[in-house]
Amino acid sequence: METTRHFTATVYVVNDGATALHEHKRHGIRIPPGGHVDRGELPHEAGLREVREETGLQPTLLDDRPGVPGSEGEALPNPRHTLLYDINEHDGVVGHQHIDLIYYAETPSRDIDPAGDEASPEAWAWYTPEELRASGIAEDVASIGIDAIETADR
Description:
Blueprint: E1 4-15, E2 18-23, E3 30-31, E4 34-36, H1 43-55, E5 60-61, E6 81-90, E7 93-106, E8 124-127, H2 129-134, H3 139-153
Parallel strand pairs: 1-7
Antiparallel strand pairs: 1-2, 1-4, 2-3, 2-8, 5-7, 6-7
């Protein structure tokens, strides 16, 4: 069986020393906004779109890495992390994976107002580093969330 891979983009959104996470409907875990990169869409654009759709917030990416001097190519925002997730497995064979490009962003507000059929505002919560450490949230989500908060505070 061939493994299919899709690109996804996730954004840890920070405001005033906390990051927003929501309860994922199907998986029952707390995660930041994100989703699939659509055809013709750049990864960072997908991440920003997902934040706007899922939260109604207006994010600004944190991209402090220098571009390439003299390049004729367009410099794209660098993801902070790139992770490969196994999405499904059958008889010990991984059938589907997500290549997740993870970005950090800031937003001027904590007012969650999701679009359409997205998770309700009650599904979202803002977590400080202390709350992330004490919450029982998955270790990778907590540590990346803490890094995003610390990066925004610099």
